[in-house]
Q: What sequence folds into this?
């Protein structure tokens, strides 16, 4: 009899371990699921093809992102579990432990409401998170009546983790998205930047940006063309032309030091970066975007063009070679008209033309600019252009020799005077 | 003490008479007693010692020998082990032989070199040594590196410092809200603990 009793006790003592192992396995699955959801939300928030980008992610990346997203929820779950055990032990002798659990549930739901309202998101994801929280609370209340405290504790921890995962998904669903910044130094000497997506033995996947604004492009650059990859800490990325949601409660508004770039201007500049004239995504200059945003009427309206200092008349070859040094302020240059092509799409003016200029000394230096109006400039003529350098990069192959170029945004889109 | 002193004087006199001179150690000790720095221990080729108060100069412990009419210099040191030729060389047998050392110090017998200070009286020797120390301090040492002049750090004026983004909070932070909610919950639990009867339904007294 005694032996049977010992055997029965040892069989009973395995149950908590089995419960714990089950909860641990469920937590790992939950972490990977949350990592997948969070990364999908980030890619979707910046306008990338999120499902395609997700197919490039490794399970380690998903687990790491899920653990990062669930860190606060796991900590909160442990605290809540400790609170549940403590409240039960404190109030059971007085017969009010049920009321204590209700107090704990109300506290957790209120924290969820505050956290949801603090997120800069639209109403649909907010309601999704609130609904998940309420459903989890209801399930918890049902379980309090039916299961043992041990299982209740584990269930509560898992429910908090699930609600935390949904909240993390909601938080990442709205821009700006926190993504790693990648700088790729290419074998032709040029540089391209963007949001890092993935890396394998053959290719680098990135979302090129126009001054930290992506434009829905998932670029694949062969590793053979990359000389060096530099990854920087995550930065805020937005989709060009898309507004950001605001928090309803306890949010923070950041006033950028150099002013803001209007969504329309951002979308226009992103369109120039995405143009097919570039072999690799070109580098864009934040200073130029800010400068144009401070003078929108001069560049896109009817105001007179900003005066260009005579000392900033630079040969085209020099502009192409040192584009960064000349960005952010107007420059003037001269070039020979190489091509004058009609802009078929993306422009409101049917008479818009994309003018390609080349350097008078170096035929491999290019400058692109737009020209609106009926009057054209003949090919071969040396023309004058004034504007702000927006992009710089490698031009799509016209031969074996790499050709470098810039996009010059002229005031009023009058290129070639 | 007096007996020891007289014994030492007798030994010196005896040595002078016999023509063998005093033992070097005794001579050094004698010179030391007289306040004269020891000179017999100096190497003939040694540099004059610098004054102790002078700033120490980084000098070579053994100055490199001056090469006299060097012949064709070997371009590569032959490997120490004949079976292991150095990488890129044709092998030890085809390497040029090592040029023998032709330094001045190795050609001049050490015994024939006598410092000039040995022929001078004590006071002149001291003055000569001081001048030597001064000239040694003034002479550029072969290890003296050119003075590195660090450029002063550029002064960044407030005008060119990038402005900082302004952050405006539109309400209490989430941490404050969570702390407030948690405090209210703790208060409710405390109330449950202190006044549990407020939260329990009282059973009506049973009918008799």
A:
């Amino acid at each position: 009899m005694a032996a049977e009793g010992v055997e029965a006790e040892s069989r009973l003592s395995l149950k908590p371990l089995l419960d714990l192992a089950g909860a641990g396995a469920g937590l790992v699955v939950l972490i990977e699921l949350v990592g997948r959801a969070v990364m999908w939300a980030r890619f979707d928030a910046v306008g990338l093809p999120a499902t395609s980008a997700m197919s490039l992610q490794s399970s380690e990346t998903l687990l790491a992102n899920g653990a990062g997203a669930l860190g606060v929820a796991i900590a909160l779950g442990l605290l809540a579990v400790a609170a549940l055990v403590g409240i039960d032990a404190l109030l059971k002798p007085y017969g009010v432990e049920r009321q204590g659990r209700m107090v704990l549930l109300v506290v957790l739901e209120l924290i969820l409401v505050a956290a949801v309202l603090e997120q800069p998101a639209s109403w649909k994801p907010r309601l999704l998170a609130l609904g998940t929280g309420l459903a989890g609370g209801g399930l918890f209340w049902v379980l309090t009546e039916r299961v043992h405290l041990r299982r209740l504790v584990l269930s509560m921890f898992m429910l908090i983790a699930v609600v935390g995962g949904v909240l993390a998904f909601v938080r990442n669903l709205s821009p700006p998205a926190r993504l790693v910044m990648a700088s790729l130094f290419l074998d032709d000497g040029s540089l391209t930047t963007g949001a890092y997506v993935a890396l394998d033995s053959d290719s680098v996947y990135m979302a090129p940006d126009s001054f930290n604004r992506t434009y829905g492009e998932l670029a694949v650059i062969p590793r053979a063309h990359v000389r060096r990859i530099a990854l920087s800490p995550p930065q805020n990325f937005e989709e060009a032309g898309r507004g950001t949601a605001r928090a309803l409660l306890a949010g923070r508004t950041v006033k950028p030091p150099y002013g803001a770039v209007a969504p329309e201007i951002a979308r226009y500049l992103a369109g120039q970066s995405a143009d097919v004239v570039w072999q690799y995504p070109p580098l864009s200059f934040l200073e130029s975007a800010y400068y144009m945003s401070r003078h929108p009427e001069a560049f896109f309206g009817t105001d007179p063009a900003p005066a260009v200092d005579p000392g900033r008349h630079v040969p085209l070859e020099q502009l192409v070679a040192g584009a960064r040094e000349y960005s952010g302020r107007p420059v003037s240059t001269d070039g020979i008209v190489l091509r004058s092509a009609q802009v078929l799409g993306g422009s409101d003016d049917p008479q818009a033309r994309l003018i390609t200029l080349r350097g008078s000394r170096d035929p491999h230096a290019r400058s692109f600019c737009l020209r609106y109006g009926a009057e054209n400039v003949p090919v071969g003529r040396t023309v004058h252009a004034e504007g702000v350098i927006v992009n710089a990069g490698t031009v799509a192959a016209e031969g074996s020799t790499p050709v470098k170029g810039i996009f010059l945004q002229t005031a009023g889109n009058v290129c070639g005077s | 003490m007096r007996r020891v002193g007289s014994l030492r004087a007798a030994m010196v006199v005896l040595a002078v008479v016999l023509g063998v001179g005093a033992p070097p150690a005794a001579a050094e000790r004698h010179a030391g007693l007289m306040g004269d720095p020891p000179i017999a221990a100096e190497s003939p080729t040694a540099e004059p010692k610098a004054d102790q108060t002078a700033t120490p100069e980084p000098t070579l412990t053994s100055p490199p020998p001056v090469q006299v009419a060097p012949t064709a210099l070997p371009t590569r040191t032959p490997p120490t082990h004949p079976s292991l030729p150095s990488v890129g060389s044709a092998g030890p047998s085809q390497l040029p032989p090592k040029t023998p050392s032709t330094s001045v110090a190795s050609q001049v017998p050490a015994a024939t070199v006598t410092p000039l200070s040995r022929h001078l009286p004590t006071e002149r020797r001291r003055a000569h040594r001081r001048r030597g120390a001064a000239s040694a301090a003034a002479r550029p040492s072969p290890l003296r590196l050119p003075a590195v002049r660090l450029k002063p750090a550029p002064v960044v004026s407030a005008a060119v410092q990038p402005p900082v983004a302004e952050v405006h909070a539109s309400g209490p932070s989430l941490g404050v809200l969570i702390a407030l909610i948690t405090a209210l919950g703790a208060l409710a639990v405390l109330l449950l603990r202190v006044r549990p009867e407020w939260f329990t339904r009282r059973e009506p007294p049973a009918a008799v």
User: Anything to note?
Assistant: Chain B has a mean pLDDT of 54. The radius of gyration of chain B is 44 Å. The interface with chain A takes residues 162-174, 176-178, 181-182, 184-185, 188-189, 192-193, 196, 199-200 of chain B (CB under 8 Å). The beta strands of chain B are 166-169.
